[in-house]
Specification:
Radius of gyration: 29 Å
Helix content: 25-40%
Strand content: 25-35%
Number of domains: 4
Number of helices: 12
Structural class: alpha+beta
Number of strands: 24
Largest sheet: 6 strands, antiparallel
CATH topology of the largest domain: OB fold (Dihydrolipoamide Acetyltransferase, E2P)
CATH architecture of the largest domain: Beta Barrel
């Protein structure tokens, strides 16, 4: 598979595009004024404990307080293990927390006290003695090699490293999770990663010792460097960066942390915008729409709501060449691949309901499910797919930690307030009639003036003209109409004169 990463930098924002076989698969965006905070560590202050919800609000210095559930709180030294929030935190208490979900909409950041610090090959778990291996590493012998290597190093080098770091207390408990890119990595490189993470944790502890809540203690890397750490892998052919300054920073970072990626870095000085190389801008625009066309003539409809995302598959103009069942099967196969790509491209998370076209053939159902699993296997975000339900729906989840592409780039329509539809001019006319009747009963006035949009005024002067005349006769008052060019279709006013 031909895979490249494009990094587009400007003084206002950084954008990342992951390209596979010439096709956009993922987009990541970070604006300088609105950087994501997932992975940041804060010394927070408990401002409110909610025993009924088994949760608490933590002030971390942002616009909205963060939220933490009892399941995400580890008992501190001297505390008994408990599933009661009131036993673990109290109002006014300082608490070290890490962001696991960015603030979204009206919700504050989701927090945890289970701190984890990622590097290239490992995720460091201070306070834990767990050694875990990425589930994406399938070779059992390699899993065993990695586990034994790290267990041995963590157990045998604790005292040595504590002494080498000087004014640092001993590492009484520490664990790691081995990341997918660590497959095949040498023992020496893994040990160097452990040493790097230990030094970083020492620096964090020193800041905690002198910090006052609320305060940021540790900030994750900027997007360009996070991409090199988290997304880039040995199969990537090129990483093209269109900023010389960002390229030099990336080269320094790669030299220190991931030297095997150095040969893949490339500064792109071309006059043509880097995202134009693979029509990335056009693909981003398409990813903001509901409808995704399939090559066969079918299409899928994607609707994103606060509660869940639904995906509906339709045959559209595709009629096939043999029979209806074959047409449905081919459409569902193509849709399964497209859905895997769209979930990554749009960064859709949470509960997702897939409504494929009903298939009678059990083997067809299995093949579509396998195709979906294969498409999702390329996704570095954790997904879970349930079996087909009795209603023929596939329910799945995709881990959500950051806002979707639509949430980042769009806002609810000021006219329809996010419903995706507007009332018809006829409906608005009847609302105006009712408002006039309401005012007539309540007030003594001579005339009424209706201010409305062009579409509503046209409706009142045409299809509803006779009803407007009947209303004037009924109330015995004059009703005048006035166009307000700045009004949207549902906006109107009834002025009493």
């Amino acid at each position: 598979m031909n895979e490249e990463i494009l990094i587009n930098f400007s003084p206002m924002e950084t954008r990342i595009a992951v390209i596979e076989n010439g096709m956009l698969q993922e987009v990541h965006l970070e604006r300088n004024d609105h950087r994501g905070i997932v992975g940041n560590i804060y010394l927070g202050k408990v401002v409110r404990v909610l025993p009924g919800m088994q949760a608490a609000f933590i002030e971390i210095g942002l616009e909205r307080a963060g939220f933490i559930h009892v399941a995400d709180i580890e008992a501190q030294d001297g505390q008994p293990d408990s599933d009661e929030i009131a036993h673990l935190v109290r109002e006014g208490q300082s608490l070290l927390v890490q962001v696991v979900k960015d603030p979204m909409g009206t919700k504050g950041a989701r927090l945890t006290t289970q701190i984890s610090i990622p590097s290239r090959y490992l995720v460091y778990l201070p306070g834990s003695d767990h050694v875990g291996i990425s589930q994406r590493i399938e070779d059992e012998s390699e899993k065993q090699r990695l586990k034994l290597c790290l267990e041995s190093y963590l157990a045998g080098s604790t005292e040595l490293h504590a002494m080498a770091d000087g004014a640092v207390s001993e590492f009484d408990k520490e664990g790691v999770i081995v990341r997918t890119v660590a497959e095949g990595v040498s023992e020496k490189d893994l040990q160097q990663d452990v040493d790097f993470l230990r030094r970083l944790w020492v620096q964090i502890k020193q800041k905690i010792a002198v910090g006052e809540a609320p305060q940021v203690i540790y900030q994750d890397l900027p997007l360009a460097l996070r991409t090199l750490r988290d997304i880039a892998h040995p199969q990537i052919e090129k990483i093209r960066i269109d900023s010389k300054e960002t390229y030099l920073k990336a080269a320094e970072f790669v030299d220190q942390l991931v030297p095997d990626m150095a040969s893949k870095l490339e500064h792109y000085p071309g006059g043509r915008p880097i995202f134009d190389l693979y029509n990335v801008e056009d693909e981003i625009q398409k990813a903001l729409g509901r409808k995704v066309l399939l090559k066969s003539g079918g299409y899928i409809i994607i609707d994103q709501t606060e509660a869940m995302t639904t995906v509906d598959v339709n045959t559209g103009a595709y009629v096939g060449y043999r029979n209806l069942e074959e047409t449905i099967f081919k459409t569902n196969l193509e849709a399964a691949t497209a859905i895997g790509r769209q979930l990554r491209l749009r960064n859709l998370g949470g509960i997702i309901i897939l409504d494929f076209i009903d298939m009678q053939d059990v083997e067809h159902q299995r093949q579509v499910a396998r195709t979906l699993d294969h498409a999702l296997s390329k996704d570095h975000v954790k997904t879970k797919v349930l079996p087909v339900s009795e209603l023929g729906l596939i329910q799945m989840t995709r881990k959500r930690s950051r806002e979707s592409l639509e949430q980042l780039l769009c806002e609810p329509c000021s006219s329809c307030e996010g419903t995706g539809s507007n009332k018809t001019p006829e409906t608005i006319c009847y609302e105006i009639f009712r408002e006039i009747m309401r005012a007539h009963r309540a007030y003594d006035t001579n005339t009424y003036s209706v201010l409305a949009s062009q579409a509503v005024i046209d409706q009142l002067l045409d299809e509803e003209a006779h009803r407007l005349a009947e209303l004037e006769e009924f109330i015995g008052k004059t009703i005048s109409l006035r166009l307000e060019p700045m009004y949207v279709s549902e906006q109107y006013d009834v002025v009493l004169r």
